[in-house]
Amino acid sequence: MVKALREPRLERAIGVIYLPQTERASHYFHARLPEQFDVMIHFDETRAVEPLDRTKLWETGEMPETFPFAM
């Protein structure tokens, strides 16, 4: 096992509500990868998810920023 992976690293939580004023304290935590995960995969490139069912709303452009909450 690579020694660098044993050191505590910052991990970003997924699915948190974004609050810029507290991002570092509320969105990140220390993790030791070998203790938390069995496998680690890195992707150099990704792309946005597309729906399986393409509705008229999808075809006309991007969803509103408040989707799906319509606030």
In quaternary terms, these chains amount to single chain
**Order of the strands making up the biggest sheet:** 1-2
- Biggest beta sheet summary: 2 strands, antiparallel
Low-pLDDT segments: none
Number of helical stretches of at least 4 residues? 4
Mean residue pLDDT: 79
The rounded Rg comes to: 18 Å
Count every beta strand, where a strand is a DSSP E run of 2 or more residues.
Answer: 2
The helix-strand sequence is: HEHEHH
Q: Which range best describes the helical content: under 10%, 10-25%, 25-40%, 40-55%, 55-70% or over 70%?
A: 10-25%
Fold and architecture overview:
The protein has 71 residues and is an alpha+beta fold. Helix content is 24%, strand content 11%. It has four helices and two strands, in the order αβαβαα. It has a two-stranded antiparallel ribbon with strand order 1-2. The longest helix has 5 residues, at 23-27. It is flat and about 50 Å long. The termini are far apart. The model has no long low-confidence stretch (mean pLDDT 79).
What secondary-structure arrangement, pairings included, does this model have?
Blueprint: H1 3-6, E1 9-12, H2 23-27, E2 28-31, H3 33-36, H4 56-59
